Amino acid sequence: MTDSSKDKIGKGGYGTVYKGRLPDGLLVASLFLDSVMRGKRALIYEFMPNGSLDNFIHNGSGMANCRLEWKTLSEIAVCIARGLE
C-alpha cells in the first residue's frame, strides 16, 4: 500500500499515518499503531485531503462554516473503538 517514507503524512501518539492506494484505486490513510503487546495493527480510513480529524476538532482548521456536532463526534469515537476491538 505504501512504498516509502515519502508517503508518510503524520505521526501521533498512537502511531504513524501513511497515504496509500488500495488495488481498486481508492486513496486511503493508514494508521499503523505503535503497539508492542498486541502485535501489528493498522486502521485504514478513506483519505480526506483537508487534514486530520484531530486538527479539525481541536484547532478549528476545518472549513469555517462546517462544525461537527457532539452526536457526530461520539459516533466517530464509537466507530474507532469498534475498529480497535
TrEMBL record:
It is found in: Membrane. GO terms for cellular component: membrane. SUPFAM superfamilies: Protein kinase-like (PK-like). The keyword Ribonucleoprotein does not apply. Keywords: Glycoprotein, Kinase, Membrane, Serine/threonine-protein kinase, Signal, Transferase, Transmembrane, Transmembrane helix. Coiled coil: none annotated. It is a single-pass type I membrane protein. The keyword Membrane applies. GO terms for molecular function: protein serine/threonine kinase activity. PANTHER family: RUST RESISTANCE KINASE LR10-RELATED (PTHR27009). This is Protein kinase domain-containing protein. It comes from Prunus dulcis. The lineage of its organism: Eukaryota, Viridiplantae, Streptophyta, Embryophyta, Tracheophyta.
